[in-house]
Amino acid sequence: MTRILIIEDNYSSSLEFGTNIARILDMEGFKITLISNIAVGLNLAVNLEFDLIIFELNFYSLKAEDILKRIKSSLKNLQASSLLITANYEFEAISLIKELGISDYLIAPFTKRDLLATVTNCFLEHQII
């Protein structure tokens, strides 16, 4: 079974967004782990085996540089594909995403079809499906 880790930033007011993503992917047959703390999530990502890591980050409110450096450091040692979801569509944010080595990204709001297509593309890129 394909395992997906969803990591929400600590600055979200609720887990509603991540829970909705988890619910959609669970209904598609994926095994989902949802974490609302970046440090804990990165620790899980490094110590457990996941096929895809989805980061849901609010670039507007978090101290992006420190968090992004930790993500980049963690990802370089992982075989998992990665997806970043954000509402920030500014050029600087997209550039940071690409610098991280993230496989793909989604700009919120998006549809269920967008999410599933992007997840599929991440898997195809890493030949998981």
From TrEMBL:
It comes from the Bacteria. Residues 3-123 form the Response regulatory domain. Keywords: Phosphoprotein, Two-component regulatory system. Pfam families: Response_reg. SMART domains: REC. Gene3D superfamilies: 3.40.50.2300. Coiled coil: none annotated. InterPro entries: Bact_response_regulator, CheY-like_superfamily, Sig_transdc_resp-reg_receiver. This is Response regulator. It comes from Floridaenema aerugineum BLCC-F46.
